[in-house]
């Protein structure tokens, strides 16, 4: 029916990252924050936040009948947002 539309479309398929991958990415991203003990705790918190949001998307769909997707890029955005806010906080402490 619309050959140019069908020929030019791309499907992006996202799968969930395993918990070990989420943890590894967070630990590597948060190295600039502080000591290794702090990094481990922060990384676990970030993983927990991401996983809980993923679980809540199921509930959101059941109640609102609207889809919400958590992707690897949304996890990276979470880490980026934390690092930006941490930078702002450190600037105000000077």
From TrEMBL:
One of its GO terms (cellular component) is dynein complex. One of its GO terms (biological process) is microtubule-based movement. InterPro entries: DHC, Dynein_heavy_chain_D4_dom. It holds the Pfam family AAA_8. Residues 1-83 form the Dynein heavy chain AAA module D4 domain. GO terms for molecular function: dynein intermediate chain binding; dynein light intermediate chain binding. Belongs to the dynein heavy chain family. This is (California timema) hypothetical protein. It comes from Timema californicum (California timema).
């Amino acid at each position: 029916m619309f050959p140019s539309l069908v020929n030019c479309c791309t499907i992006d398929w996202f799968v969930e990252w395993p918990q070990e991958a989420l943890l590894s990415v967070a630990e590597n991203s948060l190295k600039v924050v502080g000591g290794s003990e702090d990094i481990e705790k922060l990384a676990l918190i970030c993983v927990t936040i991401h996983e809980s949001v993923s679980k809540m998307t199921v509930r959101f769909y059941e109640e609102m009948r609207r889809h919400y997707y958590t992707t690897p890029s949304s996890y990276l955005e979470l880490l980026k947002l934390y690092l930006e806010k941490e930078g702002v906080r450190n600037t105000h402490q000077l």
